[in-house]
Amino acid sequence: MGDFNDLDTKSLVSDRNFVQVVDKATRGDRILDKIITNFSAHYKHPSIMSPLGASDHCTVIWSPINDATSKPNLTRKRITRPMKDSAIREFAWSEASHI
């Protein structure tokens, strides 16, 4: 990914299993911000958005396709009792005395 002002990427795309997925202009009437990949089947078509800040290049948004087979994140809740500072020091002292 990146700004390819002067780099010719034709040989990279034609000689390997890579594709360039950005197909709309990102600066003026040229495609200068490209994404070259061999994982395009796992992503949606890129969206071209307005430039950020003072940039003169459009923003390219490339989102993964939601995979219904992926496992959901599980959140676990753990309850702990806070220990007083004196209890922590006492524990450390008692452990050191047994070594």
Structural commentary:
- The protein is an alpha+beta fold and 99 residues long.
- The protein has a domain at 1-65.
- Helices cover 19% and strands 14% of the residues.
- The chain contains two helices and six strands, in the order E-H-E-E-E-E-E-H.
- It has helices spanning 10-15, 85-97, and strands spanning 2-3, 19-20, 33-34, 36-37, 47-49, 59-61.
- The longest helix is centred in the C-terminal third of the chain and has 13 residues, at 85-97.
- It is elongated and about 70 Å long.
- The mean pLDDT is 82.
Set down the secondary structure blueprint.
Blueprint: E1 2-3, H1 10-15, E2 19-20, E3 33-34, E4 36-37, E5 47-49, E6 59-61, H2 85-97
Antiparallel strand pairs: 1-3, 2-4, 5-6
* Gross geometry: elongated
Order of strands across the biggest sheet?
A: 1-3
Q: Can you count the helices? A: 2
Q: Estimate the strand proportion.
A: 5-15%
The profile of the biggest β sheet is: 2 strands, antiparallel
- Kindly state the percentage of residues in helix: 10-25%
Q: Tell how many strands the DSSP assignment holds.
A: 6
User: Which ranges are low-confidence, i.e. pLDDT below 50, for 5 or more consecutive residues?
Assistant: none
**Helix-strand sequence:** EHEEEEEH
Based on CA atoms alone, the radius of gyration comes out at: 26 Å
